[in-house]
Specification:
The chain is mainly alpha-helical. It has one helix at 2-136.
């Protein structure tokens, strides 16, 4: 019996060691599960951040495209306005030249009118002198 006691005592010790090892393994498993949950939460957070970053990138890319399109439109408008300005400048120059010619013509006509007035005055004076001569005779 003492042998049975020794075996039974040894089995109890083995059982206690096994239970202790099981507890340690259970604790290790629990810790590993906790780590997995933490890593999973980190991964989920990273995925959310990645999605947000991707959305921001897409938004910025869209804004860049829109800005480029606006820049192109503004550039085209600027070219069109520059062309219109050049046309207006040419028209102003043409009108200026025409105005100078009209002023020259006005001056010529005014000189002609003054000359005609002088001739008319002279002719009127001549007529008056002739009428006076006729009346004197």
């Amino acid at each position: 019996m003492s042998n049975d006691h020794a075996i039974l005592s040894e089995l109890k010790q083995d059982l206690q060691r096994t239970n202790h090892e099981l507890e340690l393994l259970d604790q290790e498993l629990s810790n590993t599960n906790d780590e997995i949950k933490m890593e999973s939460a980190k991964q989920l957070t990273l995925q959310k951040k990645m999605i947000e970053a991707t959305q921001r990138l897409e938004s910025l890319t869209r804004r860049i495209r829109e800005s480029k399109a606006t820049k192109t439109d503004l550039s085209q408008q600027q070219k069109q306005m520059q062309q219109e300005l050049s046309e207006l400048e040419a028209l102003v120059q043409e009108l200026g030249t025409a105005m100078e010619k009209a002023e020259e013509n006005d001056e010529k006509e005014e000189k002609q009118l003054l000359k005609l007035r002088a001739e008319l005055i002279e002719a009127t004076e001549t007529v008056q002198r002739l009428e006076q001569r006729l009346q004197s005779k």
